[in-house]
């Protein structure tokens, strides 16, 4: 029988997830408070929640659908920062300082229902309810650690190490244990994986083909099955701690 993602997370000492839901940080009461200030909007695939350079006046809670966060370099190179799904909160919150502007964009990949939260309404909640503020800031701190981990991948890993680290992280949100290992229950193209680590589709294809020959991964219906996750830990020199 397939093992749930939650059970899998408790079994394997993962590098931190790249797609943690804010639902895991807020109590039911505080999640209801957050949802009470949302206005719901349906958005179609192929649209955008916001663009690079746009002022961050709102945050976006995904009730359904899928959103990809992408950034582009000055040379036009595209990077996939994260894939956000149900329960994720997207946006920037700078506390009570001056306005912030996005340095990435949010592409709606799959038709979504989005809860839109105005920053001023969020600030009122933070002022009024101390326990809500503590839980919300815990989520902020966690997301910063996730981005630090991603920066670590870019700075200290080669392409193979960065890809190994990315696949391990993806198991924390999309991993399901199966008879052959861990299935990543999400369709990702080699271009998507390349955009995660700042390399080409061709480079990812070569690495995955090499790993398939070594019995580290397999492909099933356009999805990755990790058959020897310990080998991925060795590749990215993961020793059980958090980057």
From TrEMBL:
Residues 22-114 form the Cyclic nucleotide-binding domain. Residues 157-230 form the HTH crp-type domain. Keywords: Activator, DNA-binding, Transcription, Transcription regulation. CDD domains: CAP_ED. PROSITE patterns: CNMP_BINDING_3, HTH_CRP_2. Coiled coil: none annotated. SUPFAM superfamilies: cAMP-binding domain-like, Winged helix' DNA-binding domain. Pfam families: cNMP_binding, HTH_Crp_2. InterPro entries: cNMP-bd_dom, cNMP-bd_dom_sf, Env_Response_Regulators, HTH_CRP, RmlC-like_jellyroll, WH-like_DNA-bd_sf, WH_DNA-bd_sf. This is Crp/Fnr family transcriptional regulator. The lineage of its organism: Bacteria, Bacillati, Bacillota, Bacilli, Bacillales.
